[in-house]
Write a structure and sequence with these properties.
The chain has 13 helices and 19 strands. By secondary structure, the protein is an alpha+beta fold. It has a six-stranded mixed beta sheet. The protein has a five-stranded mixed beta sheet with strand order 14-13-4-3-15.
């Protein structure tokens, strides 16, 4: 138990992604610990009230009602019906508990100092220690008590659900069954425009400013597909078969596939930067374009009966400048998420991208994949067809995906295996995406880039007046991981563990395996 606690502490300090933990036998709490369990539940209740009052709740992973020591994301929630065996259940619970401790670490760091101190002094179980020490200790006490009871274990499994981002009442009031047709028509027109851009030779694409190429910092030599495959297979030797590379291995993987960002730069709004809060009471954040940064986040998808590792690279711009007062797509802050899904053989299976608002989703599949036919039926709300502007290029060792990005709109206009055209070179720095959940304010205090609803303040777009009937809250605004609805028509989420399986299926020649039904 102590070994697992040490591992959790180290991982939380790094605020990384969900990582593997050794299987640990959990024993029931003895009778003399019952009073401690009561105190622990009171402690979590008071802590959650303080977090809510201070408006510092972090919702990258969602709370699970009745179980304060666990939180869930869509990926882990997808295992809910597949962890009946004790070893699998323990491994699953380890990861849910880790998400909760990461979330509490962020929220406690973001609590104003007076509230933190008042909470520490007013709760007996905390009085002589740190809040996070009590979070970890109480998590173990409550977990031991709950796991000892089969009925409670089943209740926990049933409670682990992540709600969708779509708001039903908006669709009802907005007459979605009628307005979705107009929206679908506009989406088809945008798809046609994108295909026209990609049909034009890249050398003929206009350049309105200067092409600036952002390159990663120098690192170790790129890994070969066989080396990557070995890492993936070795790190998936756990009860849930989830690839969970070590921190050092993740560094190598992120460096191997680090993209080059080739941006048509007209103004500072086209430069990569680091989000920050100008002051403690600022209404909206800004982006420091003097320091180019790429934020990294790792995730997983479930495809063809296997769990695959995904590498996410996220960048931020100061704004998407408006062209006029009638420009309903422009606004403060902009950004791009670029994701690589790795096949088990160590090669990219598919690239996909979305802006940080969940808008402009595009896929760049490898030849290994074929598009799954998506029937247009009332059951799936006549979902948007996926936008596939081109196939993914083959990357040889040492080559990186190069993204050609338009000025102002920051649309990705091409994916190539090597940069083309004259460039000014800028080296970007690496930062973990978790850094955005607790930004330093310079006075010892911290504040998340995101509100408790996952939205970045001050990033409103005029499109919200047109697209609210589609049920997406705050359409066009920048948002946190776990809050990206990526379809106006139908329902899709960027972090849906079955998203790739909904869009693509393996070639028939590979002998696709059946997968369990998903909910």
């Amino acid at each position: 138990m102590m070994a697992r606690g040490v591992l959790l502490l180290g991982t939380i300090a790094a605020l990384g992604g969900c990582v593997g933990t050794p299987v640990t036998r959990v024993t029931p709490a003895p009778p003399n610990q019952v009073s401690i369990a009561v105190e622990c539940r009171q402690f979590f209740a008071r802590l959650d009230r303080a977090i809510k009052r201070a408006k510092v709740a972090d919702t990258q992973a969602v709370r699970v009602a009745g179980f304060p020591y666990v939180r869930a994301n869509r990926f882990l929630a997808s295992f809910r019906d597949q962890v009946a065996e004790p070893e699998a259940f323990t491994a699953w619970l380890d990861r849910l508990q880790l998400l909760a401790e990461q979330g509490y670490a962020v929220e406690i760091a973001n609590l104003p100092r007076p509230q933190r101190e008042a909470l520490r002094l007013s709760v007996p179980i905390v009085r002589h220690g740190a809040l996070m020490d009590s979070v970890r200790g109480c998590s173990e006490h409550l977990r031991s008590e709950d796991v000892a009871q089969r009925a409670t274990r089943e209740t926990l499994r049933a409670a682990v659900r992540v709600p969708g981002e779509y708001v039903a009442w908006q669709r009802a009031v907005g007459l979605y069954f009628l307005t979705a047709n107009a929206t679908q028509s506009g989406i088809r027109k945008w798809h046609a425009q994108v295909h026209e851009v990609y049909a034009q030779p890249l050398a003929q694409r206009p350049v309105y400013g200067q092409l600036v190429r952002y390159v990663p910092p120098p690192g170790a030599p790129a890994l070969t597909p066989s080396e990557i495959s070995e890492i993936l297979q070795r790190s998936a030797q756990n009860a849930l078969h989830i690839p969970e590379p070590t921190a050092a291995e993740r560094e190598q993987l992120f460096a191997t596939f680090a993209p080059l960002w080739q941006i048509d730069t007209v103004s500072e709004d086209d430069r990569l930067g680091m989000p920050f809060w100008p002051s403690h009471d600022a209404k909206q954040p800004d982006v420091d374009v003097r320091n180019a940064a790429v934020y990294r986040h790792w995730s997983h998808t479930r495809f063809d009966g296997a769990v695959l590792l995904q590498l996410n690279y996220i960048v931020w711009f100061r704004s998407r400048p408006k062209t006029s007062g009638a420009d309903y797509l422009g606004g403060h802050l902009d950004g791009i998420m670029w994701r690589i899904t790795l096949a088990q053989d160590g090669r990219p299976l598919v690239f996909d991208t979305s802006h940080n608002c969940g808008c402009y989703q595009m896929y760049f599949p490898s030849p290994q994949l074929r598009l799954r036919r998506i029937p247009q039926t009332p059951e799936n709300d006549a979902e948007e067809l996926p936008l596939i502007p081109q196939m993914a290029p083959t990357l040889h060792r040492g080559q990186r995906p190069t993204l050609r990005i338009a000025h102002r709109t920051h649309y990705i206009e091409r994916l190539t295996s090597e940069p083309r055209g004259a460039d000014r070179i800028v080296t970007y720095r690496w930062l973990d995406y978790a850094h955005l959940r607790s930004l330093a304010l310079g006075n010892g205090e911290h504040r998340s880039l995101f509100r408790p609803d996952g939205i970045v303040p001050g990033t409103q777009r005029g499109e919200r007046f047109f697209f609210w009937p589609m049920g997406v809250p705050h359409p066009g605004e920048m948002r946190q991981w776990g809050h990206h609805a990526i379809a106006f028509v139908g329902r899709r989420h960027f972090d849906d563990p079955y998203l790739m399986e909904q869009i693509f299926s393996p070639p028939v020649a590979t002998g696709a395996r059946s997968t369990p039904p998903h909910k």
